[in-house]
Amino acid sequence: MLRYLLVLLSLLHATDSFYVPGVAPINFHRNDPVEIKAVKLTSSRTQLPYEYYSLPFCQPTKITYKAENLGEVLRGDRIVNTPFQVSMSVEKKCEVLCNFPNKPVTLTVEQSKLIAERIREDYYVHLIADNLPVATRLEFYSNREEEEKKKEKDVQFEHGYRLGFMDGNKFYLHNHLSFILYYHREDVEENQEPTYRVVHLKADEKGMCTLPEATGSAPQEIDPSKENQMLFTYSVHWEESDIKWASRWDTYLTMSDVQIHWFSIINSVVVVFFLSGILSMIIIRTLRKDIANYNKEDDIEDTMEESGWKLVHGDVFRPPQYPMILSSLLGSGIQLFCMILIVIFVAMLGMLSPSSRGALMTTACFLFMFMGVFGGFFAGRLYRTLKGHRWKKGAFCTATLYPGVVFGICFVLNCFIWGKHSSGAVPFPTMVALLCMWFGISLPLVYLGYYFGFRKQPYDNPVRTNQIPRQIPEQRWYMNKFVGILMAGILPFGAMFIELFFIFSAIWENQFYYLFGFLFLVFIILVVSCSQISIVMVYFQLCAEDYRWWWRTFLVSGGSAFYVLIYAIFYFVNKLDIVEFIPSLLYFGYTALMVLSFWLLTGTIGFYAAYMFVRKIYAAVKID
Q1: pTM of the model
Q2: Alpha helices (H) along 237-358
């Protein structure tokens, strides 16, 4: 047990190696071919990935696409072979890439315009070798004294390499690539051929290459108004490295400052638990005083002067309006909660590494489908507690309400992506497969869980409900729902907004996110803060003699989703350079789905915390 605890703690430390369990290393011998494959073209300005051969790059004799998993397809990956000829420990310099020896390729006017457009949109080319992504080295000087700047440099890497660049109104294409591959020599017995493992891959698109037969050099200018003669070349350089295969992803995964994560975690823990401790002490002391007063045997006059949350005991468990919809939304929230908890925990253990492309998204999709049995169970039991009778309709609503909204929005966005001929568009067979998973796996499991949940004994409420509803007194302005949402959402959002920046960067700027140990702690803090703030808000509401807490608690508990939406708008305006309509539509469409899912998640957490609190306090007082 101690060993596993140490493993969990080590995953939170930035300097530890990122070991990928279940992925076997490939041992190369000298002169063995190392295949370089293309993944896609991406741009943070358009958010539209494209296939590698959507541009007129040199093609091999036979184009072979890798069979992608569900996550890779949804990410827009289209892994395909390339004509780069790379062999272990074999140096190459200024090799001509295409099948025309030392002869340039003629680009048509349409192809030249397309390349110029992609350069203007700031596209990156993503290649992989031995499942390692190509990275471009960036060097920039630290903010120190001018005399020290030349001595010390900070080195970082960006994923992929730039397709080209603009100089004024001129377009330049990076038609020459200098590959720098690092290998680690493995220990072998005597009289055996040494084996090598690829541990890092860099590309320098700024390298110069001039051949006697060539008509130009790299980078080469592209004139979009006419045909262009282009010569694609590449070089290969090998270097030995001390990095072991188990640690080869460290270079790619340490591109962000981990100290910021530590600061975020410490800040969130201190603030949340400090405020939670204060709120808990206030609530507990107030409740003890209330319960002691309510349980005293006073005379009739004192009893008539009672006020506070005890007065609404006959209405506090009165079923709300639209109980079927409420239970369905809470069932979807339970599905999301179970799915996110399992995914983050498994990823924290290193089982969903970036080297397993698409594994995280594939696991999340399948887990959401299978967690339908838990969502249906909780929704069915709550629906019966709320005096519902049409369990079949309730089960169908649980299985289709939230997934239907998600599928509808994604389908509309997918139509726009289809129109742009982007690889980010989900193919029709994949869409049919997702529908089959929805109606073939998730729907039956939701019905199964709903059936058993509806048959189970409903939640035991400690007090009976009166036949005639009690009149609700006029509420103060600060008891307004929108004010409650603003007040309740600050604390949970403040506990996670720094981590939210890295998540947004990973999604919208094609970065890796791997610090799932931090994310797991942030998730726990989020659960605690949502529960605490929900309990406080429902206590204030009941003290104001307003017993309509069912829907209000669910809405107010998800108040942090409103701040996530505001932050998403801020991120769009200040961090992204998106100006076109379709990329903006994609951003806000997918952001709406994220906000909706986050609202369901936090609303469900807060609702069940408040429900347990309400049942607990009314069970502690004597009701005549």
Answers
A1: 0.84
A2: 250-253, 258-295, 300-304, 323-348
